[in-house]
């Protein structure tokens, strides 16, 4: 894992930008995931630089561009899951480091992103996937993105407690979103051929207990290829590392740690000698595809390994969604032993 974190760090630009790989595109969601892996591996200054890079490029409406290259926007669409995910990264950073100054510094960007998410919420609780040119939310909602936003809103609510700025609108939004994820499958576009739509309601914490177990059992044979990992798409002979590791996180959250370890082990055929990971394998042909090694695939491996080993203080973020505080947390000052003293 040290080698993998070192490879991720080597892809980071001097200004803190954390793209898919050196010189490749950057999107906000995947950049946050990669920054979490840096914190997991102890590269806290690099993780903070990645978060500061994102905060410095947030638009006035709370959004980010869908893609950047060399610091410039190359795909301008504003997506709700991109706007929300910084909250997960900052909460993970707090769990990893107890750095109250960084939380305070990044709080305005977190607040701006989640305020936008709540403005994009549709009647019935689901959140539109993107902004239209006129600034209104598209009425198409994507299940994977919404499951990620469920986690983001909960992390944001926890951060709000830390900084002493409670956000009751977020609490209402996450309650309505959770109800939609659990009871209104018709609220989301049909993308059931993608494995992420299968496991993400468990990974994001919307489904727990027996409901989580039942959901993971339902499509297991459609998506899991024994010994190789999880398919990205049900009707393609293609297993992918990130989806396999995210499935491992969902399995761990559902209490199936042995099955989670089995999946993390199965995808190690994608590991490169330098600690990086290939995106996927077309197993019918024995061909790695696409021909790329990405920070977000490597990051998913690191986060899954941490979740299963419990090696860091942030490991429980994914394995125990029910433990995430949602409201009423004391502010930062009362959680520390004094100025500059972080939580143990």
From TrEMBL:
InterPro entries reported for this sequence: 6-hairpin_glycosidase_sf, 6hp_glycosidase-like_sf
Domain of life: Bacteria
Name by which UniProt lists this protein: Prenyltransferase
């Amino acid at each position: 894992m040290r080698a993998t974190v070192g490879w991720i760090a080597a892809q980071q630009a001097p200004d803190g930008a954390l793209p898919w790989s050196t010189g490749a595109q950057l999107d906000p969601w995947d950049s946050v995931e990669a920054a979490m892996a840096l914190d997991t591996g102890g590269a806290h200054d690099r993780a903070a630089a990645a978060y500061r890079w994102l905060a410095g490029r947030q638009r006035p409406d709370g959004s980010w561009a869908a893609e950047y290259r060399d610091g410039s926007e190359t795909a301008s669409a504003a997506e709700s899951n991109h706007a929300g995910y910084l909250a997960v990264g900052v909460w993970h950073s707090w769990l990893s480091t107890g750095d109250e100054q960084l939380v305070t510094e990044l709080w305005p960007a977190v607040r701006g992103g989640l305020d936008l998410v709540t403005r994009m919420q549709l009647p019935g609780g689901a959140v539109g996937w993107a902004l239209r040119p006129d600034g209104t939310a598209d009425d198409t909602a994507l299940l994977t993105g919404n499951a990620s936003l469920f986690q983001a809103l909960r992390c944001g609510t926890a951060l709000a407690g830390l900084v002493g700025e409670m956000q009751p609108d977020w609490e209402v939004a996450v309650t309505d979103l959770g109800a939609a994820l659990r009871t209104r499958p018709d609220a989301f576009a049909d993308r059931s051929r993608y494995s992420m739509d299968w496991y993400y309601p468990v990974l994001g914490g919307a489904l727990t207990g027996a409901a989580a177990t039942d959901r993971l059992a339902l499509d297991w044979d459609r998506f899991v290829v024994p010994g190789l990992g999880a398919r990205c798409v049900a009707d393609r002979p293609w297993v992918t590392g990130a989806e396999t590791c995210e499935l491992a996180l969902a399995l761990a959250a559902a209490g199936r740690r042995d099955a989670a370890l089995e999946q993390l082990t199965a995808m190690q055929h994608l590991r490169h000698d330098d600690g990086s990971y290939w995106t996927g394998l077309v197993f019918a042909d024995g061909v790695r595809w696409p021909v790329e090694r990405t920070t977000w695939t490597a990051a998913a491996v690191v986060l899954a390994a941490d979740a299963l080993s419990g090696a860091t203080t942030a490991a429980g973020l994914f394995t125990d969604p029910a433990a995430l505080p949602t409201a009423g947390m004391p502010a930062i000052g009362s959680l520390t032993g004094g100025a500059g003293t972080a939580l143990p």
